[in-house]
Amino acid sequence: MLNLYQEQGQGLVEYALILVLVAVVVIVILTVLGPQIGEIFSTINFTIAGS
After folding, report:
1. What DSSP element (H or E) covers 19?
2. pLDDT in tens, 7-25
């Protein structure tokens, strides 16, 4: 029975590490591409408002 709990705990830790890795990648991408994405949305907004 103890082995089952250890495997569940190990799986939970693995999922947590994957989640942290994905979060770090998303933060880095948004930091690098954030200004460009903001500029695209501003252009779209200006185009829609100007129509």
Report:
1. helix 2-50
2. 667 788 899 999 999 999 9
